[in-house]
Design goal:
alpha+beta; 7-stranded antiparallel β-sheet; 3-stranded antiparallel β-sheet; 2 helices
């Protein structure tokens, strides 16, 4: 009779607690966060073989490069300012078309040129100066503090000053300027003067004017400047109370900035 094998199953434990249905990992938690990272071993150190080129060091800005950049910015700013000023001057020149004023000596009267007892000569001249402003949109303010001097061979004969006045556009003004002075060493001066008249028949004089002015462009007054005018003229004599003939006259103009 064949033996019968019977499967025996264990009976469930009624008193045992039911299995827990909670997950092993809390919700909203990654598996990698469930373990402490300190449990991982450190990564192995990397050793480069001999002869392998090292990576370049990080670039650092040097003080020299910063100074060069600052200098370039300054030079660029200056260049822009120079270009702007040049453009402004060019525009003003095209608008106003400035021209140099003209000066000439019309007449010269010698009211006194007589020797004194102390070997000196007292001189008094009256110079008629004609000034012409050829500009259409530029006026000239002739200010106080001017000077006009008469010289013979670098010897100062007499001096005076021009009056203050305003000269408008395309205006011609004639003014009389009185000059007074004293010449020392009259005997030596008279001998030189007589020799000059005997050789050439005339007496060369030089008139030098220094006049502070302000130029008016339209309604704009520019900074204070100074006109320098030098006139070379030739007269027939230096005798007082006689009609003096001006044989030739030429004037040169220069402009100088004061402020």
């Amino acid at each position: 009779m064949a033996s019968v094998h019977q499967k025996i199953h264990p009976a469930p434990d009624v008193e045992a607690p039911p299995p827990s249905s909670a997950p092993l990992i809390p919700p909203n938690t990654l598996k990698s966060d469930s373990h402490n990272r300190d449990h991982y071993p450190p990564p192995p150190s990397r050793t480069l073989p001999s002869g392998y080129p090292l990576p370049p060091p990080p670039h650092k800005r040097s003080k020299r490069s910063c100074c060069c950049r600052t200098l370039c910015c300054i030079l660029t700013t200056l260049l822009v300012l120079i270009i702007a000023i040049g453009a402004t001057i060019g525009i003003l020149f095209l608008i106003f078309r400035p021209k140099i004023p003209d000066y000439s000596i019309q007449t010269l009267r010698i009211t006194q040129f007589s020797p004194n007892s102390n070997d000196s000569i007292s001189a008094t001249f009256v110079v008629n100066i004609t000034t012409r402003n050829p500009n259409n949109r530029i006026g000239i303010y002739y200010l106080g503090g001017s000077s006009l001097s008469a010289y013979y061979r670098n010897t100062l004969l007499c001096q005076g000053s021009l009056p203050a006045f305003y000269q408008g556009h395309r205006n011609t003004t004639a003014i009389d300027v009185a000059l007074t002075g004293t010449v020392n060493h009259a005997s030596e001066f008279s001998a030189t003067l007589q020799q000059q008249q005997a050789e050439t028949g005339n007496v060369p004089l030089v008139l030098r004017a220094r006049v502070p002015v302000r130029v008016k462009l339209g309604k704009l007054k520019l900074m204070k400047m100074r006109f320098r005018v030098t006139c070379e003229l030739s007269i027939d004599s230096l005798t007082s109370n006689t009609e003096i003939r001006v044989a030739s006259s030429s004037c040169k103009f220069r402009l100088r900035r004061i402020f």
